[in-house]
Amino acid sequence: MPHLPMIALDAMGGDFGPPVVIEAASMAQKESKQTLNFKIFGDSKQIEAELKKFPDLKKHVEIIHTDKVIANDEKPALALRNGRGSSMRLAIDSVKAGEAAAIVSAGNTGALMATSKMVFKCLPGIHRPAIASVFPTKGEDTVMLDLGANLHCDPEILVQFALMGAVYARTVRGIQTPLVGILNVGSESVKGPDNVRTAASILSQVQFPGKFHGFVEGDDIPAGKIHVIVTDGFTGNIALKVAEGVADLVSLTIKDAFKSSLLAKFGGLLSMGALKRAKKKMDPRYYNGGMFLGLGGICVKSHGGMDSYGFSRAILVAADLVEQGYNDKVALELEKLMGQESFVSFDMASHSAS
Amino acid sequence: MPHLPMIALDAMGGDFGPPVVIEAASMAQKESKQTLNFKIFGDSKQIEAELKKFPDLKKHVEIIHTDKVIANDEKPALALRNGRGSSMRLAIDSVKAGEAAAIVSAGNTGALMATSKMVFKCLPGIHRPAIASVFPTKGEDTVMLDLGANLHCDPEILVQFALMGAVYARTVRGIQTPLVGILNVGSESVKGPDNVRTAASILSQVQFPGKFHGFVEGDDIPAGKIHVIVTDGFTGNIALKVAEGVADLVSLTIKDAFKSSLLAKFGGLLSMGALKRAKKKMDPRYYNGGMFLGLGGICVKSHGGMDSYGFSRAILVAADLVEQGYNDKVALELEKLMGQESFVSFDMASHSAS
Q: By the 8 A CB rule, do A156 and A346 touch?
């Protein structure tokens, strides 16, 4: 492990490639408390051309050239087979080899998950990795997982997600005893499908680095009273996209309202500063960075359409996970969890049933 | 069936009871193209006291007294057993007896669904009723179902929901060939769990009163390009509540912004008219009214916390379903669907598997 945090960047992923990735590295460097170093994988000519614009960044960058890129529409299985030597694969390999502490890519999500799962493997004892992300709320930010890696989740997988989310909230967000909820169609314990009810029953009996709040509903995500929200990847992915879409719809409707009359235009002009601050509070770029939790290496996915500021936020998410030693802490807490009788008994039962 | 549309109202449901229900009936009466008549079930003293405020309404109202009310927290199974003679049950019974054409209640959702299912039964051939509601979007309003009646749905149930939604979009919303999508985690046909992929495969082969668009994602709900969105009740309920919560969060953030400085306050004042129009466009009260589709009687659930305007919208939703003969048209289209070979072969296969 290098002395200074070393982040591997896939320069060729996403809609924009090196121009966004390089500027993002420079922005993250300025924003970060610690000095960041980068290994940047991709077309060296393009990368060097962009680096010229950021002389302060250059001395913290090592370029690893490759012509090979995994296409955004490549099937994950094909990317696995044919991805060797690609910018994404080389960046992941560099983390596996201990030459970097984390990888950030805006490339093909399926390929990134499949490749990092194959190369990093799951942390010992973790059955499935999850995609986690932070959501803006009325209160404190909330982390939700899984956002799409696992369509259906057995109870013990949901319990592991709760643990992974709670360790994130504690170590990276600094919340000593994070409140953890499971997403459901009602808050009463009798509600919902078997897997969430069993997971809730386990979580209410075991000790883990958080407090189990019980079931939460869809509107509890933006309400901001729960620090960690656990769900399966099917529901989580749809909830994430509904949230993005509705935020967009409301903003657009209000923007249109300000254009609807001369008076409204003038009013909008006077309020512009305040409105911009409001917009910033819910800026999807600020919340960019899907963390692949539960793997033996740290991997963060930037949204493919993000600009430099958005990508820089994903880099900082990765840097935080590295700095706080997230993976070591998850491994430790998992060991504690798995030693508890009330977990073991459920674990056995669900294993024998599946 | 009475000559003029007769709507049965459960006056005792919801958070407010008769004061909201009676004023809502008066508002719906004024808004409706046709003259509405009401049978109002509940405490006659309270109902009469409220009716005094609306002399124009009085001649269109018949009061059926009962002291018995199903509590908001009553378990559905208990409500079924003990609900006989309650305002909700009597209102449902009056539809079954042909004395009213639809029932509207703001009471206990589980009890309302369980009771109307028991009394009305499903329409011939329909396996499960669904809760459907209309969502505001950037384009045309979208109807989504199921919003919570069925946690998990087999493919053929999703196909029936598509049909029920399409018939609604055509008959009540006047869209000749509604676009129908199934909610999923990606738009590619290989994505998602078995039940949605099989349902999509059926829908792309059968003829039904709509056009199957394929899979849609969470942000396609507010995008407003699809007229009917089909999903299971677990996902649909969570999507609905995420949408409500996020709309609320964005509105609140903007409201706060206008309070943040004197200049912003002044700007907000100037734009107030335009902002109010924007708010109206997404007013949850306007979109109130969860339709229980697929039952042998028309039942609409008003949100328990709605005011008179909101409840009046739910009454109009019921009146529309009656006026357009929704149930007869669903029955007709279902018969056509079930006669098609490409449906029958799937239907058999899934029946034998379950």
A: yes
Q: Is the omega angle on the peptide bond into residue B146 within 30 degrees of 0, that is, cis?
A: yes
pTM of the model: 0.92
- For residue B4, name the pLDDT band (cuts at 50, 70, 90): low
Q: What are phi and psi of A36, to 5 degrees?
A: -100, 145
Find out whether B58 and B345 touch, Cβ atoms under 8 Å.
Answer: no
What pLDDT tens digit does each residue of chain A (354 aa) get? Answer: 445 689 999 999 999 999 999 999 999 999 998 899 999 999 999 999 999 999 999 999 999 999 999 998 899 999 999 999 999 999 999 999 999 999 999 999 999 999 999 999 999 989 999 999 999 999 988 999 999 999 999 999 999 999 999 999 999 999 999 999 999 999 888 889 999 999 999 999 999 999 999 999 999 999 999 999 999 999 999 999 999 999 999 888 888 888 888 888 888 888 888 888 888 888 889 999 999 999 999 999 999 999 999 999 999 999 999 999 999 999 988 888 888 877 776 655 554 443
Q: Most B CBs within 10 Å: which of A244, A271, A272, as the mutation test of the B interface?
A: A271
Residue for token pair 């643990």: A163
- Contact map slice: B 46-105 vs A, CB within 8 A: none
Give the C-alpha separation, A88 to A93, whole Å: 9
Identify the helix (H) or strand (E) that includes residue A229. Answer: strand A228-230
Please name the residue of chain A whose CA is at the shortest distance from the CA of residue B269. Answer: A267
Supply the angle between the helices B262-281 and B233-258 in degrees, to the nearest 10: 150
Rounded Cα gap, residues B103 and B302, in angstroms: 11
Q: What is the CA radius of gyration of chain B?
A: 21
A49/A41 Cα distance (integer angstroms): 14
In Å, how far is A162's CA from the nearest CA of chain B? Answer: 19
Residues of A in contact with B281 (CB under 8 A): 253
Count CB pairs under 8 A between chains A and B.
196
Distance CA A87, CA A76 (A): 15
Give CA separation, B151 vs A186, A258, B124, B148, B232, in Å.
Answer: 12, 41, 22, 6, 6
The Cα–Cα gap between B331 and B221 comes to: 27
Predicted ipTM? 0.91
DSSP for B44-102 reads HHHHHHHHTT-HHHHTTEEEEE------TT--HHHHHHH-TTSHHHHHHHHHHTTS-SE
Which of B152, B217, B270 faces A241 most closely, judged by CB atoms?
B217
Collapsed DSSP state (helix, strand, coil) of residue A59: coil
Cα angle B300, B48, B110; round to 5: 25
**Which B residues, 184 through 243, put their C-beta within 8 Å of a C-beta on chain A?**
185, 192-193, 217-223, 231, 233-235, 237-243
